[in-house]
């Protein structure tokens, strides 16, 4: 399992882009994790699935609302990672009104999630292999803090916890 001090796994996530520009075409675009995190401070949080109750009601909204405070604390970007496809993540971004505040990154085949060792098997609930709920502060591609939730919990991966860690 990934831990503080480790480098993020080499992986490509997908991001649905609504507006063409800056070398991105409309639709799913690849995001090389190593290149995208290089030289930046990233507030990364991951969750079991788009449009699920806790994720939609608490997790994503907390980061959208906390955007300004996180930026003031030195965070360059906020990433939301979920084992969903880029089209679903794009629709969820519209629904959650993440705009340019939170990058909604799809880990469709769970390659990134498997590489972190933070998988959650929800096969019995008809959802297959998903990501555990967690957050991390990433500095120049390395994990600076890591907050992993217990089963069914939402206590340490919220935006307020990561904000406090970014300020420390």
From TrEMBL:
E.C. code: 1.11.1.27
Q: Which UniProt keywords apply?
A: Antioxidant, Oxidoreductase, Peroxidase, Redox-active center
Q: Which domain of life is it from?
A: Bacteria
- Say if the entry is tagged with keyword Glycoprotein: no
Q: Which reaction does it catalyse?
A: a hydroperoxide + 2 glutathione = an alcohol + glutathione disulfide + H2O
| Function statement | Thiol-specific peroxidase that catalyzes the reduction of hydrogen peroxide and organic hydroperoxides to water and alcohols, respectively. Plays a role in cell protection against oxidative stress by detoxifying peroxides.
Name of the featured protein = Glutathione-dependent peroxiredoxin
**Origin organism of this chain?**
Limnohabitans lacus
Taxonomic classification: Bacteria, Pseudomonadati, Pseudomonadota, Betaproteobacteria, Burkholderiales
């Amino acid at each position: 399992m990934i831990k503080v001090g480790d480098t993020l796994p080499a992986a490509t996530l997908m991001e649905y882009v609504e507006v063409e520009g800056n070398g991105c075409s409309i639709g799913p675009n690849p995001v090389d994790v190593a290149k995208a995190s290089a030289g930046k401070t990233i507030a990364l949080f991951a969750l079991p699935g788009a449009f699920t109750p806790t994720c939609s009601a608490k997790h994503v909204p907390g980061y959208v609302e906390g955007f300004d405070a996180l930026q003031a604390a030195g965070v360059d970007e906020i990433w939301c990672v979920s084992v969903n496809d880029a089209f679903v993540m794009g629709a969820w971004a519209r629904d959650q009104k993440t705009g340019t505040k939170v990058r909604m990154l799809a880990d469709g085949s769970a390659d990134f999630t498997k590489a972190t060792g933070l998988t959650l098997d929800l096969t019995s609930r008809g959802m297959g292999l998903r990501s555990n709920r967690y957050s991390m502060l990433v500095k120049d591609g390395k994990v600076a803090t890591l907050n992993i939730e217990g089963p069914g919990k939402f206590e340490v991966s919220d935006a307020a916890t990561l904000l406090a860690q970014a300020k420390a």
